[in-house]
Write a structure and sequence with these properties.
Elements: E1 2-6, H1 13-21, E2 38-47, H2 49-53, E3 63-65, E4 68-77, H3 94-98, E5 104-110, H4 129-149, H5 153-162, H6 167-175, H7 182-191, H8 204-218, E6 221-226, H9 231-240, E7 250-252, H10 255-266, E8 270-271, E9 280-281, H11 289-306, H12 311-322, E10 325-331, E11 349-352, H13 357-364, H14 366-370, E12 372-377, E13 383-384, E14 394-400
Parallel strand pairs: 1-4, 1-5, 5-6, 6-7, 10-14
Antiparallel strand pairs: 2-4, 3-4, 8-9, 10-11, 12-13, 12-14
The chain binds guanosine-5'-triphosphate and magnesium ion (MG).
Length: about 400
């Protein structure tokens, strides 16, 4: 699973990646600092099953901190995108191709309005972030449209007509390289009202509306209202989050604040768990007066106002709400909730809501699926069949003949 971090130059994408992963990507206040994509490992989080089961765990593939389980996810920070990228402006389509593998996009927007559409620095408040939100959706849709049309669209449409290839099959084949599934195509054909149209009947407008629907389902965008530590950022957020069409769709964040907190937590100066609404100063003597004041502002203006710095919330939203993944904990011993080495709740797997137990088994190990006998719900010791639909935070033992 891959979360793509997108946005115009200078919006704070690399800062967001660094805050979420401590990756150390280059950050600077000029456009196109990033050219080659930066990959990092971040974590999503939710309450750990150890809390309900009242056990002391010993995680292996994930982290448990204060009763919260953090599971790893991949993040990709790409070059900035400017209006007209699909026609080659700025870095052009290069970064778009870097995103083909992404399942969901976090759009980092400079909500303080202090950078223009090319990412050049302006007086805060002079640029309207709404324009960024719109152009990014357009660019992704045009990029998808370009992939569908490619150079040989006419030939493709004619062949589909002659061979009577259904639209569905033809499209899936054309889009499989960029992470588009049957379900995505089906859904987009339906919402774009193209289910009963043959490919050769599609005009430009139909192609574009199909591409727009395809963006919504295959590369859904979450809008991160970044630079909330600036007055203008908060002002714009208050205005835009109430606009029709944006209510409930923009999420406040300060990548810079999160980065500061994680650096201070890493060197032991403060106690801070990513995503938390507060932190505790452990070593006040290590903080200058300026640092103390900055921390005070982060607490009052961001954490108290919005509940957190928003970086962790963005990742969690992407994985749990938008992609609808859940946690499943496989164990070898259903009574002690441990693996064969005695580690309690060793692993957590992120699986799509609605997954069957047999699919989960396959995700863990192919042998486990091939030799599948049955499963056991470790909470109530119920026997589970292969079609059992796994539930959030299930702790399961899978019995396999292999
Ligand atoms: N005030 C404030 N500044 C931020 C925040 N996030 C990033 N910045 C600043 O914005 C500038 C650009 O940050 P980057 O992370 O390099 O932005 P980018 O989107 O990766 O830029 P490109 O790689 O050029 O596309 C730097 O000066 C950052 O310090 C934030 O939350 N608040
Ligand atoms: Mg960058």
């Amino acid at each position: 699973m891959l979360i793509g971090i997108v946005g115009k130059p200078n919006a704070g994408k690399s800062t967001f990646l660094n805050a979420a992963t401590m990756a150390g990507a280059k950050v600077a206040d000029y456009p196109f600092t990033t050219i080659d994509p930066n990959l990092g490992k971040g974590h999503v989080q939710r309450p750990c099953a150890c809390q309900q089961l009242k056990v002391s765990d010993n995680p292996k593939n994930s982290i448990c901190e204060g009763g919260v389980r953090f599971a790893p996810v991949d993040l990709l920070d790409v070059a900035g995108l400017v209006p007209g990228a699909h026609e080659g402006k700025g870095m052009g389509n290069k970064f778009l191709n870097d995103l083909s593998r992404a399942d969901v996009l976090l759009h980092v927007v400079d909500f303080s309005g202090s950078t223009n559409d090319r990412g050049e620095v302006e007086k805060p408040g002079t640029y309207d972030p709404v324009d960024d939100i719109k152009f990014l959706e357009d660019e992704i849709a045009y990029w998808l449209k370009g992939i569908i049309e490619r150079s040989d669209w006419e030939k493709f449409a004619r062949a589909a007509q002659m061979n009577k290839t259904p639209v569905m099959a033809a499209m899936v084949e054309r889009l499989s390289g960029i992470g588009v599934t049957d379900a995505h195509v089906q859904q987009s054909l339906k919402t774009a009202n193209l289910l009963d149209k043959r490919v050769h009947e599609w005009d430009d407008g139909m192609l574009l509306s199909f591409a727009r629907e395809l963006q919504r389902v295959s590369k859904p965008i979450i809008i991160m209202a970044n630079k909330m530590d600036k007055d203008e950022g908060r002002k714009n957020y208050a205005r835009i989050s109430e606009l029709p069409g944006y209510k409930g769709r923009v999420f406040p964040c300060s990548a810079l604040a999160e980065y500061h907190l994680r650096v201070l937590a890493k060197n032991g100066t403060i106690d801070y768990t990513p995503g938390a609404a507060s932190f505790k100063i452990l070593k006040p003597d290590k903080l200058s007066e300026k640092d103390q004041a900055a921390l005070g502002r982060i607490k009052a203006e961001i954490m108290d106002a919005y509940g957190s710095t928003g970086v962790q919330a963005g990742l969690d939203k992407a994985i749990f709400d938008v992609l609808e993944y859940i946690y499943v904990y496989p164990v070898a011993d259903q009574n002690k909730f441990c693996d064969k080495d005695g580690r309690i709740l060793p692993d957590v797997f992120l699986v799509k809501k609605g997954s069957r137990l047999i699919d989960v088994a396959g995700k863990i190990h192919t042998d486990l699926a091939e030799g599948f006998v049955h499963g056991v719900n470790a909470r109530d010791k119920r026997r589970l069949g292969e079609d059992y639909e796994v539930q959030p935070d299930d702790v399961v033992r899978i019995v396999s003949a292999k």
